[in-house]
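Q: My labmate handed me this sequence with no annotations at all. I'd like to see what the chain might look like in three dimensions before we decide whether it's worth expressing. Could you predict it?
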Amino acid sequence: MPDEFDDHDAAVDDYAAGTHPQLVASLVGELRELLALDLDEPDYALAVAELGMEVDAPAPYSPSGWLALVAERLAAPRADYGPDAGQ
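A: Here is what I predict for the chain of 87 residues:
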């Protein structure tokens, strides 16, 4: 991520903009399922590392706080006014 994006927000924005909405919705569901496990923070840190996150959650977020924020951001409706809108 650090080689491709300026920060965590840019990476999430890129994912949301370039990924099919059904895949984004699936990820949101998976994040919510992970958060529902009510793990300790070290276990969430291990989980995101196992899933491929190579950097720590951005300050001031804990791993679970960051996951919750990402799920919330990705679940928000997004406008699509491009040439492929409505497909």
